[in-house]
Amino acid sequence: MRPALLLLLTSATAWAQVTAQPPSLQDLMHARNVGMGGAYRPLGYGAEAVSGNPAALSLYKRYQLELSGSWDITQGFGFGTVALADSASTEVAAGIAYHLVTLGRDDTQRTAHLSTAALSIPFGEVVHIGLSVQHQLITGASNTNSVTMNAGLMVKPLDFLSLSFSGHNLIDVRNADIPRFLSFGAAVNFGMFSACAEGRADLSTAEQGVRWAAAGGAEYIAGGLIPLRFGYSWDGILHTQSIGMGIGVFIEGSGLDFGYRYEIGGNKSHLLALTLKLQTQ
Protein backbone atom coordinates (compact mmCIF):
# COMPACT_ATOMS: atom_id res chain seq x y z
CA MET A 1 0.00 0.00 0.00
CA ARG A 2 2.79 2.45 0.85
CA PRO A 3 4.45 2.37 -2.63
CA ALA A 4 1.04 2.86 -4.26
CA LEU A 5 0.24 5.79 -1.96
CA LEU A 6 3.64 7.34 -2.61
CA LEU A 7 3.10 7.03 -6.38
CA LEU A 8 -0.30 8.70 -6.11
CA LEU A 9 1.07 11.60 -4.06
CA THR A 10 4.01 12.02 -6.44
CA SER A 11 1.69 12.12 -9.44
CA ALA A 12 -0.58 14.67 -7.79
CA THR A 13 2.41 16.85 -6.89
CA ALA A 14 3.78 16.63 -10.44
CA TRP A 15 0.40 17.67 -11.83
CA ALA A 16 0.24 20.66 -9.48
CA GLN A 17 3.71 21.80 -10.53
CA VAL A 18 2.83 21.83 -14.26
CA THR A 19 1.51 25.16 -15.52
CA ALA A 20 -1.96 24.89 -17.02
CA GLN A 21 -2.18 26.12 -20.61
CA PRO A 22 -4.81 28.54 -21.96
CA PRO A 23 -7.48 27.48 -24.50
CA SER A 24 -6.15 26.24 -27.84
CA LEU A 25 -7.40 25.34 -31.32
CA GLN A 26 -8.65 22.07 -29.79
CA ASP A 27 -11.34 24.15 -28.03
CA LEU A 28 -13.23 25.13 -31.19
CA MET A 29 -16.37 23.38 -30.00
CA HIS A 30 -19.98 24.30 -30.57
CA ALA A 31 -22.12 25.09 -27.52
CA ARG A 32 -23.62 21.59 -27.23
CA ASN A 33 -20.16 20.07 -27.02
CA VAL A 34 -18.94 22.62 -24.47
CA GLY A 35 -21.89 21.72 -22.26
CA MET A 36 -21.04 18.00 -22.53
CA GLY A 37 -17.47 18.49 -21.36
CA GLY A 38 -15.92 18.39 -24.83
CA ALA A 39 -16.99 14.83 -25.68
CA TYR A 40 -18.67 15.02 -29.08
CA ARG A 41 -16.92 13.18 -31.93
CA PRO A 42 -18.79 9.87 -31.45
CA LEU A 43 -22.20 11.61 -31.47
CA GLY A 44 -22.30 12.83 -35.06
CA TYR A 45 -25.36 15.05 -34.61
CA GLY A 46 -24.04 18.44 -35.63
CA ALA A 47 -22.12 20.16 -38.40
CA GLU A 48 -19.08 20.19 -36.09
CA ALA A 49 -18.36 16.78 -37.64
CA VAL A 50 -16.74 18.71 -40.51
CA SER A 51 -13.77 19.60 -38.32
CA GLY A 52 -14.27 16.76 -35.80
CA ASN A 53 -14.61 13.21 -37.11
CA PRO A 54 -15.63 13.64 -40.78
CA ALA A 55 -17.01 10.09 -40.90
CA ALA A 56 -19.89 11.26 -38.68
CA LEU A 57 -21.30 13.40 -41.51
CA SER A 58 -23.14 10.44 -43.06
CA LEU A 59 -24.59 9.02 -39.82
CA TYR A 60 -27.85 10.96 -40.21
CA LYS A 61 -29.67 12.27 -43.27
CA ARG A 62 -30.07 16.05 -43.08
CA TYR A 63 -29.19 19.51 -44.35
CA GLN A 64 -27.62 21.54 -41.58
CA LEU A 65 -26.34 25.06 -41.03
CA GLU A 66 -24.66 26.05 -37.78
CA LEU A 67 -23.45 29.46 -36.64
CA SER A 68 -21.39 29.27 -33.49
CA GLY A 69 -19.12 31.35 -31.34
CA SER A 70 -17.20 31.11 -28.09
CA TRP A 71 -15.56 33.65 -25.81
CA ASP A 72 -13.23 33.42 -22.82
CA ILE A 73 -12.50 36.98 -21.75
CA THR A 74 -10.06 35.92 -19.02
CA GLN A 75 -7.77 34.10 -21.48
CA GLY A 76 -7.97 36.23 -24.61
CA PHE A 77 -9.64 33.42 -26.54
CA GLY A 78 -12.60 33.64 -28.88
CA PHE A 79 -13.84 32.34 -32.19
CA GLY A 80 -16.71 32.50 -34.65
CA THR A 81 -17.60 29.79 -37.14
CA VAL A 82 -20.04 28.86 -39.86
CA ALA A 83 -20.50 25.22 -40.87
CA LEU A 84 -22.65 23.53 -43.52
CA ALA A 85 -23.40 19.80 -43.79
CA ASP A 86 -25.37 17.90 -46.44
CA SER A 87 -26.00 14.18 -46.12
CA ALA A 88 -29.44 14.11 -47.76
CA SER A 89 -28.70 14.93 -51.42
CA THR A 90 -26.47 11.97 -52.28
CA GLU A 91 -24.96 8.89 -50.68
CA VAL A 92 -21.70 10.78 -50.18
CA ALA A 93 -22.12 13.29 -47.36
CA ALA A 94 -20.20 16.57 -47.53
CA GLY A 95 -19.54 19.60 -45.39
CA ILE A 96 -17.55 22.82 -45.16
CA ALA A 97 -16.59 24.99 -42.20
CA TYR A 98 -14.74 28.24 -41.55
CA HIS A 99 -13.33 29.38 -38.20
CA LEU A 100 -11.95 32.80 -37.29
CA VAL A 101 -10.03 32.50 -34.03
CA THR A 102 -8.13 34.84 -31.74
CA LEU A 103 -6.05 33.39 -28.92
CA GLY A 104 -3.25 34.36 -26.59
CA ARG A 105 -2.30 37.69 -25.08
CA ASP A 106 0.55 40.16 -25.53
CA ASP A 107 3.58 38.34 -26.97
CA THR A 108 1.60 35.09 -27.51
CA GLN A 109 -1.33 36.64 -29.35
CA ARG A 110 -2.22 35.23 -32.76
CA THR A 111 -5.11 35.06 -35.22
CA ALA A 112 -6.12 31.91 -37.08
CA HIS A 113 -8.24 31.40 -40.20
CA LEU A 114 -9.21 27.73 -40.59
CA SER A 115 -11.06 26.48 -43.68
CA THR A 116 -12.17 22.84 -43.82
CA ALA A 117 -13.87 20.63 -46.42
CA ALA A 118 -14.98 17.09 -45.58
CA LEU A 119 -16.53 14.00 -47.20
CA SER A 120 -18.04 10.85 -45.70
CA ILE A 121 -19.03 7.59 -47.40
CA PRO A 122 -21.41 5.12 -45.73
CA PHE A 123 -21.04 1.37 -46.25
CA GLY A 124 -24.54 0.21 -45.44
CA GLU A 125 -25.82 1.62 -42.16
CA VAL A 126 -23.02 0.28 -39.98
CA VAL A 127 -19.68 1.60 -41.27
CA HIS A 128 -18.88 5.18 -42.25
CA ILE A 129 -15.50 6.44 -43.49
CA GLY A 130 -14.59 10.14 -43.75
CA LEU A 131 -11.80 12.45 -44.83
CA SER A 132 -11.29 16.18 -44.43
CA VAL A 133 -8.73 18.70 -45.65
CA GLN A 134 -8.01 21.87 -43.70
CA HIS A 135 -6.11 25.02 -44.62
CA GLN A 136 -4.63 27.04 -41.74
CA LEU A 137 -3.49 30.63 -41.95
CA ILE A 138 -2.11 31.71 -38.57
CA THR A 139 -0.43 35.07 -37.97
CA GLY A 140 1.10 36.59 -34.87
CA ALA A 141 3.30 34.79 -32.35
CA SER A 142 2.92 31.50 -34.23
CA ASN A 143 2.86 31.72 -38.03
CA THR A 144 1.85 29.15 -40.61
CA ASN A 145 0.22 28.95 -44.03
CA SER A 146 -0.32 25.23 -44.40
CA VAL A 147 -2.63 22.33 -45.25
CA THR A 148 -3.29 19.21 -43.23
CA MET A 149 -5.93 16.46 -43.14
CA ASN A 150 -8.10 14.37 -40.83
CA ALA A 151 -9.44 10.85 -41.39
CA GLY A 152 -12.10 9.02 -39.45
CA LEU A 153 -14.13 5.87 -38.98
CA MET A 154 -17.59 5.55 -37.42
CA VAL A 155 -19.16 2.19 -36.61
CA LYS A 156 -22.82 1.91 -35.59
CA PRO A 157 -23.32 -1.76 -34.65
CA LEU A 158 -26.62 -1.04 -32.85
CA ASP A 159 -29.27 1.64 -33.28
CA PHE A 160 -28.40 3.18 -29.92
CA LEU A 161 -24.59 2.81 -30.06
CA SER A 162 -21.91 4.54 -32.15
CA LEU A 163 -18.14 4.08 -31.99
CA SER A 164 -15.66 6.65 -33.27
CA PHE A 165 -11.99 6.63 -34.23
CA SER A 166 -10.17 9.47 -35.99
CA GLY A 167 -6.69 10.80 -36.74
CA HIS A 168 -6.15 14.56 -36.81
CA ASN A 169 -3.57 16.81 -38.46
CA LEU A 170 -2.04 13.76 -40.09
CA ILE A 171 0.19 15.97 -42.21
CA ASP A 172 2.72 17.41 -39.78
CA VAL A 173 2.89 21.16 -40.39
CA ARG A 174 5.40 21.68 -37.54
CA ASN A 175 3.33 24.24 -35.67
CA ALA A 176 2.50 23.90 -31.97
CA ASP A 177 -1.06 25.15 -32.54
CA ILE A 178 -1.77 22.22 -34.90
CA PRO A 179 -0.72 19.03 -33.07
CA ARG A 180 -1.17 15.51 -34.41
CA PHE A 181 -3.52 13.43 -32.27
CA LEU A 182 -5.81 10.41 -32.26
CA SER A 183 -9.35 10.40 -30.92
CA PHE A 184 -11.53 7.44 -29.96
CA GLY A 185 -14.82 7.13 -28.14
CA ALA A 186 -18.36 5.82 -27.88
CA ALA A 187 -21.83 7.31 -27.60
CA VAL A 188 -25.25 5.95 -26.73
CA ASN A 189 -28.66 7.39 -27.52
CA PHE A 190 -31.96 6.33 -25.95
CA GLY A 191 -34.53 8.76 -27.31
CA MET A 192 -34.29 11.93 -25.25
CA PHE A 193 -31.13 10.81 -23.42
CA SER A 194 -27.59 10.70 -24.88
CA ALA A 195 -24.21 10.07 -23.30
CA CYS A 196 -20.72 10.20 -24.75
CA ALA A 197 -17.15 9.38 -23.68
CA GLU A 198 -14.03 10.30 -25.63
CA GLY A 199 -10.28 9.89 -25.27
CA ARG A 200 -7.48 11.73 -27.06
CA ALA A 201 -3.82 10.78 -27.53
CA ASP A 202 -1.44 13.61 -28.47
CA LEU A 203 1.43 12.48 -30.73
CA SER A 204 3.04 15.83 -31.46
CA THR A 205 5.91 15.85 -28.95
CA ALA A 206 8.15 12.81 -29.26
CA GLU A 207 10.39 13.90 -26.39
CA GLN A 208 7.44 13.87 -23.96
CA GLY A 209 5.88 10.68 -25.29
CA VAL A 210 2.15 10.24 -25.79
CA ARG A 211 0.01 12.60 -23.73
CA TRP A 212 -3.63 11.86 -22.93
CA ALA A 213 -6.94 13.62 -22.42
CA ALA A 214 -10.42 12.29 -21.66
CA ALA A 215 -13.92 13.73 -21.52
CA GLY A 216 -17.44 12.55 -20.86
CA GLY A 217 -20.89 14.10 -20.88
CA ALA A 218 -24.61 13.52 -21.00
CA GLU A 219 -27.70 15.24 -22.39
CA TYR A 220 -31.38 14.94 -21.54
CA ILE A 221 -34.00 16.75 -23.64
CA ALA A 222 -36.70 17.65 -21.14
CA GLY A 223 -40.17 17.49 -22.66
CA GLY A 224 -38.55 16.90 -26.05
CA LEU A 225 -37.84 20.64 -26.15
CA ILE A 226 -35.23 21.78 -23.58
CA PRO A 227 -31.78 20.07 -23.71
CA LEU A 228 -29.99 19.90 -20.36
CA ARG A 229 -26.28 19.00 -20.50
CA PHE A 230 -23.42 18.28 -18.15
CA GLY A 231 -19.85 17.06 -18.68
CA TYR A 232 -16.33 16.77 -17.29
CA SER A 233 -12.90 16.77 -18.94
CA TRP A 234 -9.42 15.87 -17.77
CA ASP A 235 -6.67 17.10 -20.08
CA GLY A 236 -3.13 15.83 -19.56
CA ILE A 237 -2.06 17.68 -22.72
CA LEU A 238 -2.95 21.22 -21.63
CA HIS A 239 -2.86 20.23 -17.92
CA THR A 240 -6.41 21.33 -17.15
CA GLN A 241 -9.58 19.93 -15.63
CA SER A 242 -12.98 21.44 -16.26
CA ILE A 243 -16.70 20.96 -15.94
CA GLY A 244 -19.25 21.92 -18.55
CA MET A 245 -22.96 22.59 -18.51
CA GLY A 246 -25.47 23.73 -21.05
CA ILE A 247 -29.09 24.39 -21.94
CA GLY A 248 -30.94 25.07 -25.16
CA VAL A 249 -34.11 24.94 -27.22
CA PHE A 250 -34.61 21.99 -29.57
CA ILE A 251 -37.30 21.93 -32.29
CA GLU A 252 -37.17 19.15 -34.91
CA GLY A 253 -33.38 19.23 -35.17
CA SER A 254 -33.06 23.02 -35.15
CA GLY A 255 -32.46 25.13 -32.10
CA LEU A 256 -30.36 27.47 -30.01
CA ASP A 257 -27.73 26.17 -27.59
CA PHE A 258 -25.79 27.80 -24.78
CA GLY A 259 -22.75 26.19 -23.15
CA TYR A 260 -20.46 27.12 -20.26
CA ARG A 261 -17.15 25.58 -19.22
CA TYR A 262 -15.35 26.30 -15.94
CA GLU A 263 -11.75 25.30 -15.43
CA ILE A 264 -11.04 23.76 -12.03
CA GLY A 265 -7.92 25.47 -10.67
CA GLY A 266 -5.23 26.34 -13.20
CA ASN A 267 -6.13 29.50 -15.10
CA LYS A 268 -9.75 29.42 -13.85
CA SER A 269 -10.91 29.82 -17.43
CA HIS A 270 -14.56 30.76 -18.05
CA LEU A 271 -15.64 29.77 -21.58
CA LEU A 272 -19.03 30.84 -22.94
CA ALA A 273 -20.43 29.38 -26.16
CA LEU A 274 -23.53 30.04 -28.26
CA THR A 275 -24.75 28.09 -31.31
CA LEU A 276 -27.66 28.59 -33.70
CA LYS A 277 -28.53 25.40 -35.58
CA LEU A 278 -30.91 25.15 -38.55
CA GLN A 279 -31.73 21.68 -39.87
CA THR A 280 -34.03 20.07 -42.43
CA GLN A 281 -34.27 16.47 -43.59
How far apart the termini lie comes to: 58 Å
Give start-end ranges of low-pLDDT stretches.
Answer: 1-17
Q: Do you know the CATH architecture?
A: Beta Barrel
Write down the Rg.
18 Å
Q: Which structural class do the helices and strands define?
A: mainly beta
Number of strands: 14
Task: Please report which band the strand proportion falls in: under 5%, 5-15%, 15-25%, 25-35%, 35-45% or over 45%.
Answer: over 45%
Task: Encode the helix/strand succession as letters.
Answer: HHEEEEEEEEEEEEEE
User: What characterizes the major β-sheet?
Assistant: 14 strands, antiparallel, barrel
Whole-number count of domains? 1
Annotated CATH topology: Porin
Fraction of residues in H or I helices? under 10%
Total DSSP helices: 2
Strand order of the largest sheet: 1-2-3-4-5-6-7-8-9-10-11-12-13-14
**CATH class annotation:** Mainly Beta
What is the name of the CATH superfamily? Answer: monomeric porin ompg
Describe this structure in words.
The chain has 281 residues and is mainly β. The chain has one domain (23-280): Porin. 7% of the residues lie in helices and 56% in strands. It has helices at residues 2-17, 31-35; strands spanning 63-72, 77-86, 93-103, 110-123, 127-140, 144-158, 161-168, 181-190, 193-202, 211-222, 226-235, 240-251, 254-263, 270-280. The chain has a 14-stranded antiparallel barrel with strand order 1-2-3-4-5-6-7-8-9-10-11-12-13-14. The chain is globular. Mean pLDDT is 90; it is low at 1-17.
Would you kindly provide a brief summary of this structure?
The protein contains 2 helices and 14 strands. The chain has 281 residues and is mainly β. The N terminus is likely disordered.
